[in-house]
Queue: 2 jobs
Job 1
Amino acid sequence: LGGMAKMSKKRISVEKKSTYSVCTICDIGCQLRTESIDGRVNRVVAHDNPMLARNICYKGTAAPHIHNHAERLRVPLKRVGERGEDNWEEISYEQAMDEIAVKLKGITDSFGPEAFAVSTSGWNTQTTHSMDRRFMNLLGSPNWISGVALCAGNTAAVNRLTYGWFPMPDWGNTNCIVLFGHNPRKHSWTPIYNSIKSARARGAKLIVLDPRVSDQAEQADVHLRLRAGTDAAMCLGWLKVIIDERLYDRDFVNHWCEGFEALCDRVSEYPLDRVEQITGVDRNHIAEAARIYAKANGAVIPWTPITDQQISSTSAIRLHSILRAVTGNLDVVGGETLGGFNPGYIPESELALHDRLSNEQKAKQLGFDDHPVFTYRVAEILKEPTNKVWGFPYADLVMGCHMANPTNVFRAMATGDPYQIKALFVLGNNTLLSYANQHQILKALNNQELIVAHEIFMTPTAMLADYVLPGDVFTERNHIADSWSWTNRLTLSQKAVEPPVQASSTFEFWTDLGRRMGFAEHFPWDSLEDLLDYRLSRSNRTFAQFEQTSYMEAPAPKFRKYRKTGFATPSGKVELYSSILADLNFDPLPYYREGPSPDKKYPYLVFTGVREDPFFQTGQRNISVLRSRCPEPKLYMHPIDVSREGFEEGEWVNLETPSGKVSARISVQESMKEGHVRVPHGWWYPETRFEAPLSGAFISSDAVLCSDEDEFLDYEQGVPHFKGFPGRVTKSNLPRALENSAFIER
Ligand SMILES: Nc1nc2c(c(=O)[nH]1)N[C@H]1C(S)=C(S)[C@@H](COP(=O)(O)OP(=O)(O)OC[C@H]3O[C@@H](n4cnc5c(=O)[nH]c(N)nc54)[C@H](O)[C@@H]3O)O[C@H]1N2
Ligand SMILES: Nc1nc2c(c(=O)[nH]1)N[C@H]1C(S)=C(S)[C@@H](COP(=O)(O)OP(=O)(O)OC[C@H]3O[C@@H](n4cnc5c(=O)[nH]c(N)nc54)[C@H](O)[C@@H]3O)O[C@H]1N2
Ligand code: SF4
Ligand SMILES: [Mo]
């Protein structure tokens, strides 16, 4: 190798290459161009098609800084010393995989296959192609969880209860956009930001519901500043207006909806004075917004993470679905389209082999009994209708539809209740910081016999592992993305350069493990390209042919398909009254549930979020060009609250809940709602690696504050309440572990 490297240096001509890449730094997946020189990524730039060229942010252009970073993991590591101590020996990939297979076998032989759990996030590792689910289904474990449990995954699962699929706005034709908190910006979910901007330029109205004057709220035609966590009540108020004023689509409701009368009865419990009292928004403004939405003739409520992280999540998401349906905005031009699988590309749902997992093992999925909505329990009920309408019984939409409940999984890992979980594999997910109750997650990880992390950097979670395997990155692999079956668009991503020699893709990881564990016949593909050929075989193409002829394909949307097929629900109709929730003994109609209230001790309503432009979630705090744009975590508070507390701008404070305490700097913001505090998600301090335990993972992370107690969990899905939980703020100092940080001002 040394000789070859020397030879290539002597060459006079340099090899320049330009390829298509689907950026995986965030989960919206812009297609970009990667320019490489002599086998090294040089620049990542905008698309060559002017229609797509605006879809890039400064995280995307920072990709070379990430992919070529000096601290990128390049060699497999095996723990020496105590768990979490960050002491390692380097071993080969083959040795690591051999040892992992033996240890996993030992654990599942002793405790059963369900003692094996996986936590992952499919968009950044990108090329798993459901090989993780396939492996688990063959082995017999249902305990797969993902970051999307707190994101679009759970929204997709709940949408399926009502009309059988997860819709996507018809951005190009809509006349009205309603953002429940969702706040895309130039550097946050850039394509959605651009879509909203274009729609507004065409004259589409914008309604924003946000306690804060967010970037989108500043531009909005109507801004309702509701109290955090009250979105479900707001939607019930909108329905009250829509029903009372007969603004619904009578024809669609009569022919295609089940349970309208029951819904009307429920909605009558929410007169506008009650909704005003719950949300804190003037009833006339509520009514005005509802009228604009219902009369728009083509309106959309784009997916939002706000309603998938609160105590009334299932109801709030159902209410969005119900609003779409009764106003006639479902599967119509300018409304929200139901895509279905791409017929030319074998879906991940099929590759996962869900039918191989026995009913007995499915019933062991953690959460199956208490919080079943995105577990196998509902997936099995929806199998037949999904097959009838969409041509395949399982629909793993946005990877969220048949997973275990994370809270139940961490409880089992920590306590052995209801059974032991003893092995956790983490792929492209910073588990410790990415769910509720970080103290409990740490306890859970510390109680494992085997943790494997597949990562590109040494995160706090990877530090807790027994084996850390280096992953490849998006410029180093071939892929065709299908937006996790949310849309049916196919987008090309090409390998520009070689990955580090000892790195693997997640596809390779699962294939190599599967073959070692006796499942070789189910892992027949020798390379990603083989698997891509297989996935494209339904359209009689190979990856090489796809790559030569196309960089993006999107079948033209078809509307009102339900007239031929019905909806993929048990009744074949839109279930305003959910037969599935009724069968599971939950309230079949949507309702509002008040979260735990602030009191004297914890007087503020805290919400996590307001994503930071330079980072995706817990990532990139080690990338100087990005970190310098946002060096420290900030708590936002309203000036009145700040002066009452006697704080000053920029002062370090502690934010505390009964679950824990974190530190951050005060940022005084007029745009905040009084009585509310914002805490950012995902902070840890890679620069403190050799000074602070777990690189400061407990100093500022929101997951420390969020409870996973039952009273903080949504009933049906068990998602934690991140939007409006009680907390208090007290004076503090710069945390000692950060005193030497190069990024933090003193
Ligand atoms: N407490 C709390 N939890 C949350 C949220 C919150 O606000 N608060 N938000 C939720 C939401 S909305 C979401 S979407 C999820 C996000 O959850 P994740 O998608 O898991 O988010 P990240 O924090 O970006 O963690 C991804 C990890 O993958 C690594 N990685 C990046 N690229 C690659 C790759 O190509 N290969 C491999 N092997 N690894 C890679 C990164 O270094 C990073 O450590 O978290 C959810 N969890
Ligand atoms: N740069 C960058 N972009 C990202 C990400 C990132 O980490 N960095 N993450 C991506 C991912 S995975 C996600 S999920 C999205 C999330 O991004 P967004 O959907 O924009 O969500 P947030 O930024 O968390 O919060 C948006 C707004 O919700 C408001 N809000 C808080 N509580 C409530 C409430 O109870 N009700 C209502 N109606 N509003 C409330 C806040 O004031 C804030 O203005 O961003 C994506 N884009
Ligand atoms: S918005 Fe930025 S980080 Fe996200 S996919 Fe696009 S370029 Fe990448
Ligand atoms: Mo998300």
Job 2
Amino acid sequence: MFAHKRSSLALSVVLIAVQMLSWTPTMSLRQGAPETVCDTMLPFHGGGIPPRDSLPPFRIETSSSVIGQGQTMRVDIVGVPPGLSFAGFVVQARNRNSPHQIIGQFNPPSDGSAKLMNCENSVGNSVTHTNPGPKQSVSLEWLSPVDFLGDVVFNATVAQAYDSFWVGIPSDPVQIVRRDTTDTYPQTTRKPYVTPPPRGPYTPQTEVPQVRATAEDPLYADCGVSKTCFGFPDGCIATKSCKAMSAITVRGDVYEFELKTGSDGAAYVALGLSEDAKMGDDLVTECVPQNGQVNLYSSYTAGAPNYAANRANVPQNKARLLESSVVDGIIYCKVQRDVVTQVQGKTFDLLNNNYHLLVASGTGLKENSVGYHDIGRLPSGSPINLAVVQDLSGSSTLLLRLHGAFMVIAWIGTTSLGIILARYFKQTWVGKQICGKDQWFVWHRACMVTTWSLTVVAFIIIFVEIGEWSGERNPHAILGTITTIICFIQPIGALFRPAPNSKNRPLFNWTHWLGGNLAHILSIVTIFFAVKLTKAELPEWMDWILVAFVVVHVIVHLIYSIFLCMQIAGCFADRQQTQNVNAFQMSDMGHHGMRNGHRMERKMDAPYAGFRKGLLAAYIICVVLFVVALVLIVVLAPIEETFNKLKNN
Ligand SMILES: *[C@@H]1O[C@H](CO)[C@@H](O)[C@H](O)[C@H]1NC(C)=O
């Protein structure tokens, strides 16, 4: 408490001192920079005070990234965070490829907040402040020359106080194009946030990163030629439609990683280097827009069961943010990474080791970490030497698709049918036994054995594929496991069922009925949750097909149940039959008293057998159609993109 008070007192004293210092009659801050700063951009603050070399807390923002010859645009100097004030500045535009050449001309601001300087005998090509009072931003108008084509970078020196200033703060490059072509260039309003590259000697880059959200995103250019690109959904590099992507360029031992999202809504984009294509023990590069800039983080993933990407104990100085932007919600960053990074005793050697790429993006952030990759993630199929340019595809999803297809066939198909048969067809096809067994029983058993086998295989498949407990925050895995366990036990119970007239038979009937129906309901719920799994890449509208199936299934149940009720209530003429049905139903569900009816129940079909069989046929056709549709969606996932691909070919 007291310490706090004391330190804030000390801080105010320092601030007042700084304030006073900046008012001392020094030529430079008082009246703006003299023209001797034209080339070096160094203010002569008392001579010998060096510029700060920390990341500058100021940004140079331009109103557009492309401009025609002889056109004007706005150039702003703003604080990071916004509102941070500064005292003095000098700005000029420089040729990106020849940083000593000053380009273009400023218009004198009407409010007198800045004045023009004539550097290199050229009028008004630089601007400086007119008074050293605190300002939170400066807005300038710049006119591009008519005789220059190419990229310029605004270069600024900004002084917070007399002895605290940053030299050579660059803006993002602005491309000057022929006037007649500007119409085809959307005058992109420039970004809410743009981080300046870290200070230091500015090295002109050969390729121009144009961050535009059009189909001709230049990040895709030269994929597979000079850089290795990878993103999701799988195959999106070819169709230039990635939701998140990475591009790796290697020149000598310079490793550059570009990361970008494909649409608005992402809170981060990240690239993991992984030995096994699974989350855990991976070196991750994260680009995270925060507080008006894009931050770069390195993190290290923890695998099952406590999935996480932790930044603690991961060296943050092994990667540097070269460029970054957020334009229309699309995150872009370019990062240079050291060849060797040691993390918690593990060495990531980009030169000598091969890695899987793991691209991920999500909509949420946690404290000191990125959130779950709910937009998606994709590991590359095989580990690669990053320096070898190649076309990459995602790791195989065959097992995933098989799991889905098997489960759909089992739980939408054979289980539904098996349950209907056992519940409503015990008194149909009476007297036409197969190998001494009732028809309904033979078919019920066939259906359920199929369900059981498919479920067990699909369950094993998914554990082989994922290799561990699923990390997705989704009840699919837990519900599916419960369903599988019940399903697994169900036939074992049936195998040891008591004889039909044993006193334990009703108990068996109840539990068998309960187990079967419970598993069925759980399985449908589990399939609904599967639609939400990012890994499954299922379309949201698959929910409606599932709902339609549930409606059909429930309606068929209802119709058959109404028949049963009517029989039990004696609505049908034949008393004998009615009694039999009654007896049968009761004993089936464990009612005692009427076990005498048991013998008689199988003598003849329950009434309306023809109608019930017809309904069954219709139901079977429906179920088959549902199963075929759902299996196609699962196997061809992501089905919309699969169709688009087919259309384009
Ligand atoms: C900005 O000016 C400084 C001083 O002349 C120079 O060293 C640096 O390269 C310039 N930066 C850009 C982006 O032109």
